[in-house]
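Anyone have tokens for Phosphotransferase? Sequence:
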Amino acid sequence: MASSSSNYIIEFKIDVIKTLKIVGISTGVLTAIGLGAYYIHRRSQSSKRVILRDEVRNILRPFQLTEEQLRRVMANLNTEMTNALKVDNSVENDLAMFPTYVHHGPSGKESGEYLVVDLGGSNFRVSHVFIEGRNRMRLNNKIFLIPHSLLLGEGEKLFDYIAECLQRFIDDNKLSVLKTADYKFDLAFTFSFPCQQKSLREATLVSWTKGFSCTSVVGNDVVLMLQQAIDRRKNLPIQVVALVNDTVGTLMACSSNYRDCKAGVILGTGMNACYFEALDNIPKWKGARDNQTKQVIINTEWGALGKNGCLDFIRTDIDRELDESSLTPHQQVFEKMISALYLGEIVRLIIVDLVQRSILFPGRMQKSPSIRPDYNIFLILRGSFYAKHVADIENDTTDDLSTTATILTSIGIHDPSYDDCFIIREVCKTVSLRAAKLAAAAIAVLINRLNMSSVTVAVDGTLFRHHEQFKQNLSRTLGRLVLRAHRLVLSEDGSSKGSALVAAVDRRLKTSPIVYEKNLPS
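Reply: yep, here.
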């Protein structure tokens, strides 16, 4: 039957051509007419696509930062850092610039056995670190998931849960075997939230970030809260000896191998940085000033930049919408433009805007009732698009963008067209590039403030570790913004090894004089 039908169509076309020839229209003219109609159709389609691309570009243009804008960000960040070193004023200053009471890097003479708790996301890690000298380390760790109810519930219960997990970790690994009855493990507490420190062992939580909102913790000493939870278990032989921000751990872990490593940066769920600052440049410093204490690591908490409007010139309507719907509106403005926690949501909000303008999936919402529930879930569910999706789509080099199509299908957007996938990839590239450029501008300020002939910056976090295009864009932009010699180095296990080193340096300084070595930072 199919063959018969095909023959009929061929015969019909031949008959039409014969008829047209009878009335004086030649085959050449027919060809010209056909080609003309074809090119008119193609031009129409091409024109439609150009208009479409122009509209998408108009939506993405506010996310495309110029070098002039980046240098203005740098100037504003540098000013805010300087102002916050003068006096603590949480109302007028965007940044906290907390002194960490860590004055020295490792000398290579550190040794001993340490526990580390690393709390900074939806899970936490307990590590057992054994330092054998010259910063050779053995490490054993375990990750514990935090029930969502504890992230939002009573703070004391969170710390009780951490203590319970510490007990399980010690018992499972038989760490107390052969220890004397009065032995206590020294524990470094890696705590990746803004804290006002009064010493290495005293730290008052200023505010929760990254989705935490436990009650009765803000305004209290988190070191004391953890120690009290440990003591409530009676037979848990642990003393908390140091509160360490994750950026400080990142710096310390790297400084054991690079003598010019004077800054640490986290580019992950959150984003933050620390660096060594001379005490002479810190008018608000109230601690010791002597020949042995000339510098201190400053925890910048630079994710809060923009609180008072210094970033308004680059914020978009999408940024404002994300901020208003977040758990911390009007806080962590800079972080919300860069960190992995928010990158996917920025992309999702842009996609929603494009759908509402009928640029993406045109007509699908009305013409495909069976798909509408999935689309609606994606459109209304905050946090349904992840930074990993952004990275994978941005790196999609398949001819048919099949990687992008697979990701979209997995989140409920079925059968996306090639044009849909192409536009979404452009959105991901644009949002990721902006984040990398802003991160580069911030790191450039650190390098300039350190004012060294060569600087190594220790970096950790999922964006730097796993998002290759982000890392390349970061390095490329930094090279344009900074003329000084610099290198970005991935810091391995900073939150574990680096924090253990902080505790180890503190122990060494209490038992022996400070030793400055030529090949290691002091």
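The radius of gyration is 29 Å.
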